[in-house]
Amino acid sequence: MSRTARAFEFDAVLDENASQDNVYSLVAPYVASVVRDGFNATVMAYGQTGSGKTHTMMGSSAAPGVIPRAIDALYALIEQSPETTFMLDVSFVELYNENFFDLLHPDGPEAAAASGDKIAVREAADKSTFLAVRDASGRWAGKLRTPVASREQLLQLLHDGMARRRVMSTLMNSSSSRSHALFSIYVESSGPAGARAATLHLVDLAGAESIKASGVTGVHAKEATSINKSLSALGDVLAHLSTARRTSSSAPYRNSPLTFFLRDSLGGSAKTLLIATVRQELACGPQTKSVLVWAARARQICNKPVVHAQGAGDSRIRALEAQLARNNARAAERISQLEALLASRPDPDASFNMSFTASLDELEAEKQREAAEREALEAKLAFLINAHNDERAAQDARVASLEAKLSATASDLKTSEQRTAEALANLEAVTASLNINKAEAEDHAAKIQALTRQWCDHSRLAQKESASLKARLKREHKKRRAAEAAAAAAAASNDTLAAELATLRGQLSEANAQVSSAFGQISRLLVSANKAQASKDSRIAELEALNARLEAQLSSKDVPSSTPARPRYPLAEVN
Q: Where is this region: Disordered (predicted)?
């Protein structure tokens, strides 16, 4: 069976010997654009199950992957910008069976879902998308974001979330991810370049897999179906955007929560890098080709990155204050629960002591988390207040400048009003001096109306004449085209006749040459004939002379009588 080779073009190709350093060197510019320039950026890993996506994105303690390196790079870049204030938030979710789950929830994603909290993708007024939490009562509790105070805290949140991610062993992969993981870092900055808010999405997509090849059944088969469904929706968006003359406004983003959340990364205003991973086994050839086709389509999409500026308004400050209040209320509720537990057992026994001690340990851990979160929120609140004050000061300066301009404008306006009053007075004086009565004005109006009607009549007549001239011109053009066609035909006929005339002239020339040759031959024959006639006449004369001499000789001789006389014959004419 013959196989046709197909070439694919990518920005870089790394083989199995490439290191994590080699991979991250391609990612680094995208991370820098978030901190330095305020661009949104996305780094996404896609490939067949077991091809190394999670290894590329997470790595190991000895060889960290893209996400840990990006965190280190973020804080290194922040340290290089002392004149700018930065605040970071993070969200870490998995898309499992087409539903988002919070991997950073203290009680785990399943417990959060069991409590009634639901995460959904919402659309902001500027058409951007974000993750929001809706509680059991159906009220939206705000954006799903956790404040971050340090590099160490951010790395710890990453590892905590990875520990809660759903994985299992299949025939194709001993540690197969059963969900898509989306680790998002939200960077807000305020500095000489202004206030900016950018997002870095680091996405580890679950691997596309064949249910038959992976050997999964039951609930795991449902997981595989859900994974393939969301990847298919992502492929549909890529296929749509990679087709010429198609825009992002008609792309099927809403077919999956994954594509809806990543809308800005696919044909939007973000900078996006796709890392496609493949396996070496020959048996994986069809899947490898599918991944390469998928990646080639993604490469054809043209995003339009823009800098995301923001203003630190009162609403954002109030939102942070509300979040602080919710955290304080949650801590107070937990303390009340422990106090109630203590009051219910005045004579604690050993088992109760153990339970109470565990509760105290849990409370202490939660207090530490609350303290870290409160510290981050307070720092962020201070950051926003300072930025808001700076913005308020800038606005006050602009207001002062505008007030100065307004004062100058008011003075100019007063001068203009005075000039206008003078002009009106002059106009009234001129009107009075003209003394045009109403009858004359009406007469002028009637004349104007008559002239207007006359002009309209002339205009209609001109339109008719124009239409007639256009029709006539069209006919003349038609005749002209016919004449041009006839002239072209005549020219062609003339060319034919000229060719025939040239041929006849050639033939006539040949005939004249033949006639001239014949006349030459005739002349030569006549000369020969004349010469022959002259020779003949000369010969006859000679013969006649000879005959005369002979007769004379005969007559002078004596001939005997007995001898009969010889008859005389006339001399025959010599021919």
A: 554-575
Task: Please tell me whether 454 is known to bind a ligand.
Answer: no
Question: Does a structural domain hold residue 285?
Answer: yes
Residues 6+ apart with CB under 8 A from 352: 345
Per-residue model confidence as pLDDT tens digits over 224-247:
777 888 888 999 999 999 886 666
What domain range includes position 390?
312-412
Q: Are both 346 and 282 inside the same structural domain?
A: no
The whole model's pTM is what? 0.57
**Tokens for 406?**
């307004």
Task: Please check whether residue 400 lies inside any domain of the structure.
Answer: yes
- Known binding residue 268? Answer is no
Which residues have CB under 8 Å from 301's CB, separation 6+? 238, 241, 242, 266, 267, 272
101 pLDDT above the threshold of 50: yes
With tokens 């396996």, the residue in question is 279
Mean pLDDT of 532-558: 85
Ligand-binding site membership of 48 (annotated): yes
Residue 54 marked in a binding site = yes
300 and 335 part of one domain: no
Which helix (H) or strand (E) segment is 44 a member of?
Answer: strand 41-47
Total number of domains in the chain = 2
pLDDT value, residue 357: 63
CA 279/CA 168 separation, integer angstroms: 19
Residues pairing with 185 in the sheet:
90, 200
Q: Please tell me whether 478 is known to bind a ligand.
A: no
Q: Could you say which of 310, 326, 351 is where a domain stops?
A: 310
Among 412, 443, 472, the domain-final residue is 412
